[in-house]
């Protein structure tokens, strides 16, 4: 197995400690799986995950968010034993599908519609985290920038 070296990326990225482990996990995981799903970008801060969960009822599905990981589980109820199948092509197994959520992304809605489980997500960045413009002032003499003067005082 090939390992990826992300060190060039981290020269200019500060505070993305979990990024390398997330990328490695994504690299290691196999594509596909059950149940199939789509991830849609509806707008800049709105997303939708749609999972094909035909045959599962609302009471057989579960959603949980813990430490920025969305877990979707499905567990079928036991069928009565008196059924006899000539051919059984519909999967009757449970599943667990996990999605890593970015900071400030939360689940706002989940609904089951025509065999698809739609999970709506929204990124809500707090005001304190949004970009803001910093004004650079001059000191009293006007010869140095205010930020540079403050830095000199601290040294």
Order of helices and strands: HHEEEEEEEH
Going across the biggest sheet, name each strand in turn. Answer: 1-2-7-6
Mean pLDDT: 79
Helical fraction: 10-25%
Architecture of the largest domain, according to CATH? Sandwich
Any idea what the shape is? elongated
Q: How many whole angstroms does the radius of gyration measure?
A: 25 Å
The count of β-strands is 7
Intertermini distance: 49 Å
Structural class: alpha+beta
Protein name: 16 kDa heat shock protein A
Domain SHSP: 28-139
Keywords: Stress response
Family: Belongs to the small heat shock protein (HSP20) family.
Explained architecture:
Belongs to the small heat shock protein (HSP20) family. This is 16 kDa heat shock protein A. Keywords: Stress response. Residues 28-139 form the SHSP domain. It holds the Pfam family HSP20. The chain is α+β, with helices and mostly antiparallel strands and 155 residues long. The chain folds into two domains: 1-31, no CATH class; 35-79 and 86-132, Immunoglobulin-like, CATH 2.60.40.790. The protein contains three helices and seven strands, in the order ααβββββββα. It has helices spanning 7-10, 17-28, 146-154, and strands spanning 37-43, 46-52, 61-66, 69-74, 95-100, 105-113, 116-123. It has a four-stranded antiparallel beta sheet with strand order 1-2-7-6, with no helix packed on it. It has a three-stranded antiparallel beta sheet with strand order 3-4-5, with no helix packed on it. A hairpin with a 2-residue loop joins β3 (61-66) and β4 (69-74). The radius of gyration is 25 Å and the shape is elongated.
